[in-house]
Amino acid sequence: DENLKNPSSYLLSYQFDIYTSNLDGKKIFISAANGTVIKSLPLVSNCDATSVTTNFYGTQGFSTRLIPGSSPARHNLWNNCQPAYISTQLWNSDLTMATDYVSGINNTWGAASSAATSHWCTERAYNYFLDIHGRQGWNNFNAGVNIYQDALFCTDPPACTINTNTTNASWGNGFMFVGKASNTSTIDDFNSLDIIAHEFTHGVTESSANLVYSKESGALNESFSDIFGATCHASLFGLNSNTWLVGFDRKVVNNPSVSLYFRNMSNPNDRSHPDTYLSTNFWVSTTTANPGIDNWGVHTNSGVQNYMYYLLVNGGSDINDNGTPFSLTGIGITAARVIAYRALTVYLTSSSVHSDARNAWVHAAVDIYGTCSFQAIETGKAWEAVGLAPPAIDQTTTYCGTYGGSPYFTSTPYIYSLAPNCTMTIIPANTVQFGANKIILNPGFRAQNGSNFRAYLSDCRYAAY
């Protein structure tokens, strides 16, 4: 099971399913070491629909759980209408347990709108992966999400430090921690949809490729979260220039016209992030002994794959930091997102680096759209634009003899090295045509006078992996 990766975090516990006389029920996990409650999950679905004025997106509907026996009716932020539950709670200052947010009368959430926003955003992230990619929760086995809103920053419960002004959001094995800034306003809270979907995607990555969170694999890890954060946002609100500004919906409290975005996928240099692999402009070295404060630049070097995805969706023309000109059309976000998902969940492994990612994306594009498809070629072009050119695959081939009866065509991403001392005879009205990454005509190769022989560089070379 992909979720059983860290035995050191296991806790021996007793499990009890407990039901009350009013038909409420909980699954309780009790520590075998000290008798404390490790975790509590609902067993009875009392799921009701409601709405709230969110921090950033106006009034939105979401699901909550009726508290059995409450009169008048009150609810908490549990969505157990679906196989993978979503729970949003406040982690208590004594570090022992989390406390449910409780609604106002009849499922109203004005007093906890920020927590309800996080809850709604997580529902949207869950539904995005389910509806678009068919994924059953973050781990594809309907594991739930426990959101801890405000008050604390936790690296792994119960190892938390008190910080009432957490200016961050983070993820760890089904736990999401969402902070807010040091004021009562909600417009700069860390629960915009792209940020919440970003954190949810860390769970998808954790349970699929499990990219190690340092150096190049860590930069890819962060980039995939940015990619699906932006894509989830676009799936609800449409694609526009602000889609590519990570955290764009957050605003300066005293000047709401100014965005607090912290990465720019369309122009990574805007936030001192590289847009070309190993560029001298902003690339953080992954070969130094000191990881620094960001595990060798996982939030910085993520700019390379981020920019690749932007180009793959939108197209673009320029000269990269290596001096290589590029021009591509782009395939749109609908095609790009399924390639991204397959690359992440099928072809990448924990130690993958950018060259592996390049091949994974192209391989995924070929799987979905076909060899030498427009989508596969554009994917290869997008990666060349950020400094990773197609691999040179040598295929020494003998094309000697007589060609007649039917034309011969080939168009592949290989190098064709046509053997020396080889005579090609082409019967009139027939054709031999080679398209490849490179074609080498060795000394001694001959095609008879009048032969219809054509050799050319094919864009299929971009679809090599």
Structural summary, described in words:
- With 465 residues, this protein is an alpha/beta fold.
- Helices cover 24% and strands 27% of the residues.
- The protein is built from 7 helices and 29 strands.
- The strands form 10 sheets. Strands 7, 8, 9, 10, 13 and 14 form a 6-stranded mixed sheet that branches.
- A hairpin with a 2-residue loop joins β13 (169-172) and β14 (175-178).
- α1 (113-133) crosses α2, α3 packs antiparallel against α5 and α5 (333-347) packs across α6 (354-369).
- The radius of gyration is 27 Å and the shape is elongated.
- The model is unreliable at 1-5 and 151-165 (pLDDT under 50).
Q: What is the tally of helical segments? A: 7
Mean pLDDT: 86
Could you tell me the radius of gyration in angstroms?
A: 27 Å
Tell me what portion of residues adopts beta-strand conformation.
25-35%
Tell me about the largest β-sheet: 6 strands, mixed
Gross morphology is elongated
Structural class: alpha/beta
Q: How much helical structure, as a percent, in the residues?
A: 10-25%
Count of β-strands: 29
Instruction: Identify low-pLDDT runs.
Output: 1-5, 151-165
Could you tell me how far the N terminus lies from the C terminus, measured between alpha carbons in angstroms? 29 Å
